[in-house]
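so the lab meeting is tmrw and i was supposed to have these ready like two days ago... anyway. pasting both below. for each one the top line is the aa sequence and the line under it is the structure tokens. i havent really looked at them closely yet so no promises
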Amino acid sequence: MKLPSEVPIMTLPNATLFPQALLPLYIFEPKYRQMLLDSLNTNRMFSVAMQKPGRTRETPSPIAGLGLIRVSVGHNDGTSHLILQGIARVELEETVRYKPYRVQRIRPIESPPCNELVVDALLAKVRELLEERVKLGMPFPFPVMSKEKSSKAAETAGFSAKDVLEYLDKLSDPEEVADLVSCAVLSGPVERQTILETVDLEARLKHLVHFLMAEITRQRKDKNR
């Protein structure tokens, strides 16, 4: 798929768009309504960037997810619900314009070569930690669109532990495993953004292992209180 050199940017406080992941969005602000309309009439792509913490003005983080609009449902009041699928990590470069919505040049980011033996060992550790989460009854909090029909298009439900583990076992690409597990399991926006910004796969998996171990440790302490 050919990626554009510049795309609209949606800046959100706690959202992270990982490659291959699905992100449900509700579009209601006038500038984003226009952005959606323009995107649907061109390449159906825009980028979701996390707002830099502590900033009052719109300030997107420099590493973001580029997404492709898979489904868009418009409503009579001008709002829309859509499902965006992540297709690439991108670095946001110079701003082309700010109004009616922000548009920036982007540079796709590719992971450097890695040590397959180290990656395999880290993936095995991730799988082990996910099993431990299941035993502790920990949730898989990342929202996905509900599979059931509903009048509320924004209704979401969590991945079940079984869904995540079964899907993980079917994946052959370690990058997909790292990103989709992070998407499905990590509830903290800082942790998710850290994974998104980590280009090196070994380092990304090490971050993921660290975050999973920290969550499990907190859960064990809470159960023992």
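ok protien two:
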Amino acid sequence: MTFFVGICGGTGSGKTTLAENLVSELGEDRASIICLDSYYTDLGDLSVEEKAELNYDHPDSIDASLLAADLDQLKAGSEAASPVYDFTTHSRTKSVVITEPKEIIIVEGILLFAFESLRTRMNYLFFTHAPERTRFERRLSRDMVERARTQESVETQWAQTVKPMHDLFVEPMKHKADHIVYNTSGVMEIANDAAIRIEQRLLEHIAVG
């Protein structure tokens, strides 16, 4: 049996941190993480100019059907091969990340709740919340360091697509969560509370069969 945990929230809201700390709390032998970011549609055939015109914060930018198929494979007891996405070229590399079937699979991503096909595959849903200014500062730091972006390009993308798409497809889905996580306490305290909630729901899930 595989128990799927979904973590959604705005960019820089603490989704990845929560997922990683949940694995620490639950144990690497029991839990693994799959990132929605790995499932951006491959744009390797497009020119630099064409790529620059696209909205990467809209649900259309995600290959949700591929992720759904990979989740079904894991549920069936088979390993899944997630793509490795290069954000500097907006294309998939030739590498893959193998995820073994485990008791708990954590799926985290900004647009996770926007896809009913993915959301309904989850057994427990978390929404991470952080103030907009905090999220922007975290996004700016990450994109400049990890994705070779300039401050101007990050600010422009935030204004043109990140914030508008957040307001359309992320924030309105908050009510779908079983629990909303606010950045008001220590990360390990948050993860411990989240792990307890997962264990409780997991026991209920097992009892129902």
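from a quick look at the 2nd one: The chain has a mean pLDDT of 93. The domain at 3-208 is CATH 3.40.50.300 (Rossmann fold). will dig more after coffe
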